[in-house]
Amino acid sequence: MPEIKEMLPFLIPLVIVEFTLLIYTFHHILTHTAYKRGSRALWIVVVLVGMQFIGPILYFLLGKEES
C-alpha cells in the first residue's frame, strides 16, 4: 500500500484544481440570477454535496444559463 508521502505529488495538484473549480463555481452561482434548471439554493446544495468535481461540473453542464 503506497504511503501518503509517495502520493503527494499527485494529490496536491488535484486538490488545487478541485478547490479552484469550487471557488469559481460558487462565485458564478452567487453573481448570476438566471439558471437553466433549478434555483440558486439548489445549485449551492448540489455543489456542496458533490464537491469533488461532480457538483461544479453538473452546474456548468446543466445549470449555467448561457450569457
List the keywords.
67 residues, mainly alpha, 3 helices
Beta-sheet strand percentage?
Answer: under 5%
Structural class label: mainly alpha
Anisotropy-based shape = elongated
Summed up, the helix count is 3
Residue share in helices?
over 70%
Task: Write a brief caption for the model.
By secondary structure, this protein is mostly helical. Helix content is 72%, strand content 0%.
Written description of the protein model:
This protein has 67 residues and is mainly α. The chain has a domain at 32-67. The chain is built from three helices and no strands. The mean pLDDT is 82.
Topology record:
Layout: H1 4-31, H2 40-49, H3 54-63
